[in-house]
Amino acid sequence: MLTKNTIRLKKLLYLSSAILFILLTSSCSSEDSDNMSPNRPGGFGEGPAASVEVVPVQTESISDQVRSYGTIRAQDVVSVTPQVTNQVTRILVDLGDNVSRGQVMAEIYDVPFRDAMEQAQAQIRQQEVAFERDSSEFARQQQLFDRNLISRSELDNVRATYLNSRAQLEAARANLTQSRENLEHTKIKSPVDGVVLSRSIAEGDIASSGQVAFEVANLVGFETRVFLPLQDWELIQPGQSVSLSLSSRSDAIAEGVVSRISPQLDPTTGLGEVVITLTDTESNIYQGALVQTRINLQTRENAVVIPRSAMVEKVDTYIEPETGTIELERTYSAFVNQGDSIAVRRELELGIEQGDRIEVISGLQAGDGLIVTGQRNLNDGARIRVAGAIETEQPQQAESDSGQSSENLRDLSPEERRERIQNMSPEERQKMREQRQRSDSARSGNRQQSGNNN
Length: 454
Fold this sequence. Notes:
This is Efflux RND transporter periplasmic adaptor subunit. The protein is an alpha+beta fold. Helix content is 35%, strand content 36%. Among the domains are: 50-62 and 304-386, conserved putative lor/sdh protein from methanococcus maripaludis s2 fold (Beta Barrel); 78-207; 217-300, Elongation Factor Tu (Ef-tu), domain 3 (Beta Barrel), CATH 2.40.30.
């Protein structure tokens, strides 16, 4: 006979087995429910439609560009330096003044130079008298020699005196010329027509030869010089078009052209110099302004162009078999709408870039509906709701969908039902309420009819 303890033990084992079975079946049911959840990516059924924005793909012109920075400068900038050293007595022009060729810009104390010129003039007069005397003596001695009245050595002595006198006269004349030039150089003059860009001397300063006193520029033409690394420098060719903009804003203020290219790289920096001449300006150009230059390497017309933000970038890693290094592989895609309800992924082959725009060589065509917002959370074939799209469902279809939604809600767990209701659009919620009211009215009518029959 079985004891009471044995009976209790068997009951306990049966109860434990039953609880374990219930837990296992509940867990499996929960997993199946999760896998069947419409909100699970790749699960069965349809999840809530994601709201997206769609724009049509268009064709535009796009340019491959090399960007750099440079400083605007006048093509003709002349440094004016004094030719003599002495104190500056007058400054006649200042920054921004227009000057003409030969105009006096400053004056240097000229008394010593004027005295030197007068001394040179007096020396010339003395040398002219001596030269005239020695010249006459040489002519007279030449006649005596021709009549064999003096010897060759006596004639040679007279000739030497004559030649020395002539050399001293020429030296005195050269000294006078230099004195006149020095006196003239006490007036610092502009060598060109232009505008005074800078002034580095003041009244009372000691101006010295070789020291820059003024900078004068002819503001008819402007240029900028940029310095590019080898990989960009070797792509530049004379005649390529250039767009320029101030570094503080992006809109173009001028157009230019590559006019000169340095034949070699700088041995210190490794950069190549490129000179850009401005050809057309949209606003005032200021000497010394920092500008961003965009050199157009190539331009493609009627290219399929999309904003970079519309692309989805995927980065995969793999190990290179030969080197054993980890390499990155980037692929790009975009989503287009299919019938305003389905998102379709398109793999892209990209071309040249310009700012935030990029050319699509393959994968998209003009007129495709490109999803530009919300695309990073989509999968291929995902349901979407295009912002601004007009609902055109028939009333019968809407009612059927509402009834089906109500039936689907009954099949869901409380947590799934709550999440599904939260993700419903206002229209779907209104349809569900109307369907529930119709169902309640129908059940109430059936109860009344059943009571009357009884």
